[in-house]
Design brief:
The complex is a heterodimer.
Chain A lengths: L1 H15 L2 H5 L3 H7 L3 H25 L8 H23 L1 H7 L3 H4 L3 H11 L4 H31 L1 E2 L13 E2 L9 H4 L1 H28 L4 H6 L1
Antiparallel strand pairs in A: 1-2
Chain B lengths: L6 H49 L13 E4 L11 E8 L2 E14 L2 E10 L4 E8 L54 H20 L1 H5 L1
Antiparallel strand pairs in B: 1-2, 2-3, 3-4, 4-5
The chains are: A mainly alpha, B alpha+beta.
Amino acid sequence: MDLQHLREIARAGIWKNNTGLVQLLGLCPILAVSTNLINGVSLGIATAVVMAISGGVVAALRNLIPYEIRIPVFILIIASLVTVLDLAFNAYLHSLYLVLGIFVPLIVTNCIVLARVEAFAAKNGALSSAVDGFAMGAGLVWLLALLGGARELIGTGHILNGIDMIIPGAEPLRILPADYPGFLVAILPPGAFIALALLIAGKSWLDARAARKAAQSPKDPAALAST
Amino acid sequence: MTKEITASGLSLRTAVAMLVFSLAFTALMAGSYLLTRDRIAKSAEAEKLLLIDQILPRSTYNNALLSDVKTLPATQEIGLDQGGNVWRARMDGKPAALVIEAAAPDGYSGRIELVVAVSATGEVLGARVTQHRETPGLGDYIDPRKDKNKAKPWISQFEHRGAELPASAWTVKKDGGQFDYATGATISARAVTRAVGRVAAYAAANRESLFR
């Protein structure tokens, strides 16, 4: 039952209530950083870690936080935790810091962190809140991977630009032919809006198709489970 | 049981709570800073040494570069608020090049720290950014590892530029200087270019005392 509950939270974060595709929160970093796959995934992972920790901590402290000043206290907690995480990455995981480090301070500005703390962690237990934060972050990881990968591929013809930051000496993967001229719009901000719009449309289409299938065979448990 | 909540009582309660939370989390941050400070300084140092190899080829000197170091006091001309190091490269005892730590105070998001190699003849041999907070994907091309142009990264244009360039040339082309920049991210490029120019001028003016 409890596991079922956690699974439900995870599913909501990763698909049903995806921050980028459904809640449309934190668009500023999503659109700014999704210029390539590596940046997108890096920001996604850093955000997932911060959201899991801040969700858990806020939920654990929620009964001590006066309702009237909860927002400033939440911001204080999130900003402190991000600072601590940033220092810890820098000191103990320096090679990872070189990849993720620059994204970590950006997370404070991402309203999705505060939104989940206010909407979920302030009302739920520490474990559920940590799972919720992590699932929301995981939803962001795949979205940013897809968005970054697509923009990078259409914009430059390669994917995995910047892989040498993670694996020294590795080369970006050339997918399109070498004489592909590149399509700069995909990398520039308008490309981010267009690509995100297409992804939102794609998700809505998948959801609508699943709902239609479920309506056609309401008694089939397999169809219900797959929606 | 029910106590009347007065406005002043509520204010006091929330103010105290806010104060307690602020103190607790400030203490948390201060504690982590103290715990990690030495390790962060050490990793930054190790990184700096790796960078020196990129801007000053080993073949141009034969002294023990890392131990031939001069510590500068706070030097505002090259952006050092708290001092920094100058490593002196020598070939058979004769001055070959200086590797100077410097900073640009005017990056898009604060300070940009650099090391710049300047030859004994006053030529800039190379520059690298050691620490910065420029916007990922936009201003961070000042770091060649993040620069999309791998064959000729932006920062390589400082290589072999003479100190005879007038001070006004040491900025981006947009401002009438001689150096390229990426459209939409001028501030980062301008800050680094000007800082490199200041280091070149500083090295030219203080060559004797820096090598001593």
